[in-house]
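User: Assemble these into one structure.

Assistant: Restating your components, then the assembled model:
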Amino acid sequence: MSERRPFRWHIALFLAPAVLVYTAVMIFPLFNTLRLALYTEIDQARVFVGLDNFRTLFGDQRWANSFWNALGNNLWFFVIHMLVQNPIGILLAAILSHPRLRFAAFYRSAIFIPTILSFVIVGFAWKLILSPIWGIAPGMLDAVGLKSLFAPWLGKEEYALTTLALVSVWQFIGIPMMLIYAALLSIPQEILEAGECEGITGWSAFWKLKLPLILPSIGIISILTFVGNFNAFDLIYAAQGALAGPDFSTDILGTFMYRTFFGFQLQLGDPHMGSAIASAMFAIILIGVCLYLFGIQTRMRRYQF
Amino acid sequence: MNKARRNPVNVIAAHVILITYVVIALFPVFVILINSFKSRKAIFRDPLALPDADTFSLIGYQTVLKQGDFFGYFQNSMIVTVCSLFFILLFGAMAAFALSEYRFRGNTLMALYLALGIMIPIRIGTVAILEMMVATGLVNSLMALILVYTAQGLPLAVFILSEFMRQVSDDLKNAGRIDGLSEFTIFFRLVLPLVRPAMATVAVFNMIPIWNDLWFPLILAPAESVKTLTLGSQVFIGQFVTDWNAVLSALSMAILPALVLYIIFSRQLIRGITSGAVK
């Protein structure tokens, strides 16, 4: 690059709109929220209080209980996704990627449909189906002789969160399926044929050849699931409302932040405590992303075809 | 090919698993749609039956159309989605061109800065975004939503589009320069048409989350006149919880646009994912 070249205005013009909007609406508010977490409101004036909000959040018994409850629920929500969504997604993708499977395009499109529906539809649709009043779920269990298993899952504290996590899995299974499917398709045929010459076929080809090759994609899916889950809100809100009932058993960080920020019933909204919770979420997501970027991704062997 | 792949038992097993999952995936949508066309009694008597001459009823749809301004909500969703996509694509492509075409000081740094937003959700900054929108008077306007979604979509758009723009031939652009075209003409006339498939992919990726978002409409634009379809149906269903006909019809009306969009764009979406745009 020559130093004498005149300033190239067109580069700045090309960059300006994106950088301006992105900075003003995303980056600046993000840091402003972190800053607001250090203030509080006393007599309608904003006062700097340092880390007091965090002391309340982690030290005050009432706040700390809600926070750890939400974080624990959120972790369980994530664990269910990792244990159910991703293995089923990988299984479906493995079957779909079979070279001469008929109707593959139909299956692919049909399984992806729940992913395009909004949380509101998904939340209410499942609420209706699982409702003891309507009787679809108990009726179907009755048909296979398992009626005794039915319980109003969304209304019971011990089942509600797991049920909602499974509904969310139902909704998003299409994403891991598609990404793994793409990864499986990009494995060159020669490698599989070489495996066949060595007698590695069928399932053992999947475990010994394909799975190691798609590990980077599984890593990407895991981090996408992580960020998505720790940022989730809509499904719980649509199905259980802002109170994340029954008795906060489905409360996750997103609904906790919403309630704190906006207030509910008799409690007034508190943007500063809301910011403190948002900062905690930011820290959690940042830790997760860094663990992935530096701990997993750099160690993963990538194969160039 | 090996024996295992030709084994008919395996083929049948594969189809059984896939069909089972397709049924699981489509069953709730199917139940909602068929019951929205039935009378209240029939909904409860036999929820899995198709509507017939006796049980067919449009009472739910009549309630929905009378009580809720669904066309207004639909229009708002449409405006927000289309405008956001337009700005994401235009601004995103311009920035991607600057980053992939020119070498300048701070290029890598700028690319990293713009990529930050891929992993960090914009929702974290909600408190400050609301405060800013209130201060600028944009709260309860579609503009607020468009700005937020544009900012949210830009990082991934710049990332994907700059990958694709690197593949556009340098000879073509240099030929344009020799012919005296300005950098802007080169971008709009030569490069943009060539990356159209990548733009379509970015558009489809962004369309679904914007159309379905509940968080920002709820916080930034809850007023009746600017409600989006997602928020509108959420509020409507919340008010009519006990009117099953109305709830089922409202759900069906919210499902339909998404389904139509999906049928139109599914090929593009699947091609986008499988072409490795997000690797």
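Residues 37 and 192 of chain A are 54 Å apart (CA to CA).
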